[in-house]
Design a protein that fits this description.
129 residues, mainly alpha, globular
Length: 129
């Protein structure tokens, strides 16, 4: 994520942007919770090497777990069915967080997770070259 002057955000600034993204996602996908204070979640990744596939995967896992925890109960009350509101909340929160991280490798990993068939086709075409 960059500011208007096109300088990259500092690490604390990036953490704030990710936390704000989670809060915005929470408010936009869970209207019932909008009356209460929106939770903010900080996800640390200063210990990860985002130039490696393992580092990107680990960060994505952290973002996903933070979103899942922030979005509340997974199942619809009284059943074992996964709540559609919870699924939307998690998807939106992860999407906002990936955009806040603003790293091409993290974005590519996220898109591959959203569209696994497209990623496999792209890999097959790349392998043929």
């Amino acid at each position: 994520m960059t500011r208007a002057d096109h300088r990259p955000l500092s690490f604390p600034g990036l953490m704030l942007a990710i936390a704000a993204s989670f809060a915005v996602a929470m408010l936009s996908t869970a209207p019932a919770l909008a009356d209460s204070a929106a939770p903010a979640v900080s996800v640390r990744f200063d210990d990860l090497n985002l130039d490696s596939a393992a580092g990107v995967a680990r960060l994505y896992q952290r973002l996903r777990v933070a979103a899942e925890n922030m979005c509340g109960p997974r199942e619809t009350t009284g059943s074992r069915l996964v709540s559609l509101d919870w699924q939307k909340c998690v998807a939106t929160a992860v999407d906002h967080a990936v955009k806040a991280v603003d790293r091409p490798a993290v974005t590519a990993y996220h898109l591959a997770r959203l569209h696994p068939t497209d990623a496999k086709q792209t890999a097959a075409v790349t392998d043929r070259r």
